[in-house]
Amino acid sequence: MDHARTAAAGGRCLLWAGLVLPALGADRLGLNEPRPLWQQAAGAGVLAAATALARRPLAAFALTAVLCLADAPALFSLSYGPALAVFALLLGLRAERTAPAARCFAAVGVAGAVRIGLGGGDPVPPWLVMTGTLLFGCVLPWLGGRYWRQSRELTAAGWLRAARLEEERRLAEERARLRERARIAQDMHDSLGHELSLLALRAGVLQVAPDLPERHRAAAADLRAAAADATDRLHRIIGVLREDDDEPLPLAPAGETVGQLVARAADSGLPVRCETDGRPVEPGGMAERLLYRVTREALTNAARHAPGAPVVVELTGGPGATVTVTNGPATERSPAPSGGGTGLRGLRAAVTAVGGTFEAGPHGGGYRVRARVPARADGTVAPPRAPSAPFTRARRRVATALGVAAGAGVALVAAAAGWYAYTETHAVLEPAAYAALRPGTPLTALDLPGRQIQDPPAERAPAPPEDADCRYYRASGELFVSVDHYRLCFDDAGRLVAKDVVPRAGGRQGSVRKELTE
Fold first, then answer.
1. Among 103-112, 233-242, 440-449, 508-517, which is the least confidently predicted range?
2. What is d(CA 399, CA 397) in angstroms, rounded to the nearest whole number?
3. Is residue 361 part of a domain?
4. How many domains are there within the chain?
5. Which domain holds residue 75?
6. Over the stretch 82-108, which tens digit does the pLDDT of each residue have?
7. Can you give the pTM of this predicted structure?
8. DSSP 8-state symbol, 44
9. 498-505, long-range: CB < 8 A, 24+ apart
10. Is residue 187 part of a domain?
């Protein structure tokens, strides 16, 4: 725990050092107007307090925004602008809600607009600069932080989903293994049960043969009873292996068709006939396998529970194949059913799983089983619909907002740069024109530029004459660099009483020249 606290404190110190470095570098390189030492120390102290509040990013951002507004009404500050962007990034990365950040941005914009309005001069250039700074120095880093946060959440959710899918896959494999066991058991039940039923049927035919000796007739009766008992035992054993909710898919009938199955049952003594409409069923497909199983199960049940009853198998081929197996009432006493009915339940599940219909029940004193398989019974299951991805949609919204904010910021910065270039280049007083100015000359007789600069370097200029109206002009049309300025002061009568050269930032104070009227 102590090691973690020490590491956190070290990280905050490194963050504070990185945020203070631009302010110290701008002052040393002369990119800022000269500031007293106490102001530089106060700015470093405010940044230290904001760094200490980094775990509360809204408070840290608000504190840094106040520092930027105190340093520059237009919010654009070479000293504290990087810190403002860093805390905006942390605000988007750590804050869960967006409303507090939006209200804070709006409050900073209103405070900056009020300060610009109270400062006098043309408010358009500083307002454009402030808006561009809000977009590029605050909103864009904040959106970047939110995008980063949502990316991390999406990654964590993806790993969690991958782990869940892996567990589901393992369970599905286990379930598939159990279902495969149940399918094999069910097919054994159907195949062996059908064969044992035919064996019992053949023994019954042999038992009633008129030319059979009595002792052989008794052996045939014992054989028939043993086959029926074996069928019941097989049914009970398979019932142990099969789960109630299993839906086993049928195994292939080893090349035997429904017609061949009916013919073999008829050869065994079952009174059965097959009626078809002439249209074939797709060989080897899911429809043929299902119809084969339905027919085999229905014939087995007819032989077991309605011996001697006539059976009719109606087969309709083509798309949407149908098989109907109907047996009449039993002509001989049938053995008591052993219960269960799992064969018909398994068939119902298999047919309905591929979108078909299955019916089984009494009909005209006998029993009827009907199954219809749809045209495209390929046994596949449609993949589940992908779950919604809220994090993906949120990232998409944040990316869209980033693009809109970037486009709006580019437009505002371009407008601000154009306005700045226009105002600064129209406030240039040529050095030769400045040298020709003489004290006492009326303002109306001077050919001065049409505009004055809006951010005069008054702190570097000497004290102006009392009750004088001073105007500032640039000595050069160079943009985005510090240049010398000219200050012209006029009395109440509009006469020139003083002219001064204000050196560029970092220039020597000895270059200041001042001329007074005699």
1. 508-517
2. 5
3. yes
4. 3
5. 13-165
6. 888 888 888 888 888 888 888 888 888
7. 0.42
8. H
9. 498/439, 498/464, 498/465, 498/468, 499/434, 499/437, 499/439, 500/461, 500/462, 501/434, 501/475, 502/457, 502/460, 502/461, 502/472, 503/460, 505/30, 505/31, 505/32, 505/33, 505/34, 505/457, 505/460
10. no
